[in-house]
Write a structure and sequence with these properties.
Blueprint (H helix, E strand, L loop, with lengths): L1 E3 L2 E4 L2 E2 L9 E3 L2 E6 L10 E7 L6 H5 L2 H10 L2 E5 L22 H16 L1 E11 L1 H12 L6 E5 L18 E6 L11 E2 L2 E2 L3 H11 L6 E5 L2 E7 L5 E7 L7 H10 L15
Parallel strand pairs: 6-7, 6-8, 8-9, 9-10, 10-15
Antiparallel strand pairs: 1-2, 2-3, 4-5, 5-7, 11-12, 13-14, 14-15
C-alpha cells in the first residue's frame, strides 16, 4: 500500500474509493479510472479521457484491454466517463435518448476536478477522444472546454445539426478521424429520429474559420489520409480519413495521439500544443 495524494492506495484503486472496477461517484453521475501499474503517486500524471458511444458505459470502456494497454504505453491514466442516459445530452441530440436538463459540460468539469484532486492528474496534460456519439461529445468539449485539454481526437462523430456557428474557448489541436464508407455517421450526415447529424466538412470548415487556420496540405500516417491545417500559433487541425465504415481503430487513435505528441513527459512539464 502507498499513499497517493492523501489517499491510501492498493494497486490502481484508492482504498474504499474507486478505480477501474468501481465507480468514482460525482453526485448521481460517475466515471472510472485506470492508473498505470507501478505508479507511485509522487508526481502528477497525464490522462486520456475516453468518451463512449451510444449506449456505452464507463465499465465497458474499462473492459477494452487494448485501450488500457495504450494508456499504459503512453504513461497516462485512462478516464472513462459515462453519459447520464443512453446518449450524450448535447445541442441537437435526439430528444428520445437523452436526459433533459443535463449539463454535460458541468459534468466534465466535475470529473476533471475530482480526478485531479483524488489521483493527482496533471491538469496541463489531459487529452480527450471518443467514438461515434462520443466523438460528438469530444467536438463539444473542443468547442467549449479547450482550455482544459491539450488536444482532441474525435472519431466518427461530429456535432448534431445545426452545427455551432462559432466556439467559446480558444482553438485547440483537433485530429478528426472518419471512415469514408461510414453509414452510421456518414460524412454527409443523416437523419436520426428527430435530429440530424452534421456534415463533417462543414464542421472542419467552421473550426478552420474560427481558429484562422491556413490551407490544408495532404499528409498520410497510421493508415490515415489526412488534410492538415495550422493556424498562426501553429495549432493543428487535421481531417483524417480511412477506407472503411463505422469502426473504432485503436491504431488510428494511437497514431493521432502521437501526432499530438501526447503522453508522459520525462521532465513532468506541460505538453506543448501543436
Amino acid at each position: 500500500m502507498i499513499i497517493l495524494f492523501g489517499l491510501a492506495v492498493t494497486g490502481s484503486n484508492p482504498a474504499q474509493a474507486c478505480g477501474r472496477d468501481s465507480d468514482c461517484r460525482i453526485g448521481d453521475r460517475h466515471y472510472r479510472i485506470h492508473l498505470p501499474p507501478g505508479y507511485e503517486g509522487t508526481e502528477k500524471m497525464g490522462a486520456l479521457v475516453y468518451v463512449h458511444g451510444y449506449r456505452g458505459t464507463a465499465k465497458g470502456a474499462m473492459r477494452n484491454k487494448a485501450l488500457l494497454a495504450l494508456a499504459e504505453s503512453l504513461g497516462v491514466a485512462l478516464i472513462a466517463v459515462k453519459s447520464a442516459a443512453d446518449d450524450w445530452a448535447i445541442p441537437g441530440a435526439p430528444s428520445a435518448v437523452v436526459k433533459p436538463d443535463t449539463d454535460e459540460l458541468a459534468y466534465f468539469d466535475a470529473v476533471l476536478e475530482d480526478a485531479e484532486r483524488r489521483f493527482g492528474i496533471d491538469p496541463g496534460n489531459i487529452a480527450a477522444s471518443g467514438f461515434s456519439a462520443g466523438g460528438m461529445m469530444v467536438w463539444t468539449l473542443a468547442c467549449h472546454r479547450s482550455d482544459r485539454f491539450v488536444g482532441f481526437v474525435p472519431m466518427s462523430g461530429v456535432f448534431w445539426a445545426p452545427i455551432p456557428a462559432t466556439c467559446t474557448s480558444p482553438p485547440a489541436p483537433v485530429i478528426h478521424v472518419h471512415g469514408t464508407t461510414d453509414k452510421t455517421v456518414p460524412l454527409a450526415g443523416r437523419k436520426v429520429l428527430d435530429a440530424r447529424q452534421g456534415v463533417v466538412q462543414d464542421v472542419i470548415d467552421m473550426y478552420a474559420t474560427y481558429g484562422s487556420y491556413g490551407a490544408p496540405r495532404a499528409q498520410a500516417y497510421g493508415g490515415l489520409s489526412c488534410e492538415e491545417r495550422r493556424n498562426p500559433n501553429g495549432v493543428r487541425l487535421d481531417l483524417c480519413l480511412f477506407d472503411g465504415g463505422h469502426s473504432f481503430g485503436l491504431k488510428r487513435l494511437e497514431a493521432a495521439l502521437a501526432r499530438l505528441d501526447f503522453g508522459a513527459k520525462a521532465d513532468g512539464r506541460r505538453v506543448t500544443r501543436r
